[in-house]
């Protein structure tokens, strides 16, 4: 027998829905503390002991006494002294970042501070201290001694031309033997150079002969030394 859907559902059973039980949590109340009228308030300021007072009253020297400061007084006055001590370091007033003792501040601002304004003593240009250090190595008007040690002192812009064409200690090639010599010794070299042309002492048709070839010329080539044969006409 075939059952219908309605008949099938009648045979099914469903568990009943469980409802959660209500749980009550007891509330615990915290006790309320009320201050007593006669209770003494607690002080949070520490008491300065007698030992601390003795320490602050002890006589000390300035921390810069090795640098020459002669101040000495109670320790509690040291901080106030350092606010005026000429040996204590303070930030540069030009804000260059350096810490400079007060006694040296004037020299620092005038000579070494990279933020100072300084004038080049050679060209007169106004520059910052940092820029002046770089400029001092390239200023075209700065006088310098010749690197060849000839003794001349010229402006930087004139040195290149001087070393190339004027310096007595520059190297100059000999035009006869191609060896190089100092300019102030080249003339002396010419008196000994083996390739310098010299006149033939016999005044032959060869006007000039290299010095090293002169002996050979006089021996074998000079026309003035050739003796005509006495039998020349006879053939």
Automatic annotation (TrEMBL):
Residues 80-133, 135-187, 188-235 form the TRAF-type domain. InterPro entries: Znf_RING/FYVE/PHD (IPR013083), Znf_TRAF (IPR001293). GO terms for biological process: regulation of canonical NF-kappaB signal transduction. It holds the Pfam family zf-TRAF. Residues 17-42 are annotated as: Disordered. The keyword Iron-sulfur does not apply. One of its GO terms (molecular function) is zinc ion binding. The keyword Zinc applies. Gene3D superfamilies: Zinc/RING finger domain, C3HC4 (zinc finger) (3.30.40.10). A zinc finger (TRAF-type) spans 80-133, 135-187, 188-235. Keywords: Metal-binding, Zinc, Zinc-finger. Residues 17-32 have a biased composition (Polar residues). This is TRAF-type domain-containing protein. It comes from Clastoptera arizonana.
């Amino acid at each position: 027998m075939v059952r219908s859907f309605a008949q099938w559902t009648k045979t099914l059973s469903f568990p009943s829905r469980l409802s959660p039980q209500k749980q009550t949590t007891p509330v615990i109340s915290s006790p309320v503390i009320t201050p007593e009228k006669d209770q003494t308030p607690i002080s949070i300021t520490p008491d300065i002991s007698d030992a601390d007072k003795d320490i602050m009253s002890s006589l000390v020297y300035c921390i810069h006494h090795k640098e020459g400061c002669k101040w000495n007084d109670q320790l509690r006055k040291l901080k106030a002294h350092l606010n005026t001590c000429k040996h204590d370091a303070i930030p540069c007033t030009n804000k260059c970042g350096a810490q400079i003792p007060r006694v040296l501040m004037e020299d620092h601002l005038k000579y070494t501070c990279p933020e100072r304004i300084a004038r080049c003593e050679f060209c007169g240009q106004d520059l910052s201290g940092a820029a002046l250090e770089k400029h001092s190595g390239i200023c075209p008007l700065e006088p310098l001694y010749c690197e060849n040690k000839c003794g001349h002192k010229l402006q930087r812009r004139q040195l290149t031309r001087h070393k190339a064409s004027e310096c007595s200690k520059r190297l100059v090639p000999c035009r006869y033997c191609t060896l190089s010599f100092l300019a102030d010794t080249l003339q002396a070299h010419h008196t000994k150079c083996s390739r310098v042309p010299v006149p033939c002492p016999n005044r032959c048709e060869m006007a000039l002969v290299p010095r090293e070839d002169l002996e050979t010329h006089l021996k074998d080539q000079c026309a003035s030394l050739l003796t005509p044969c006495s039998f020349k006409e006879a053939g």
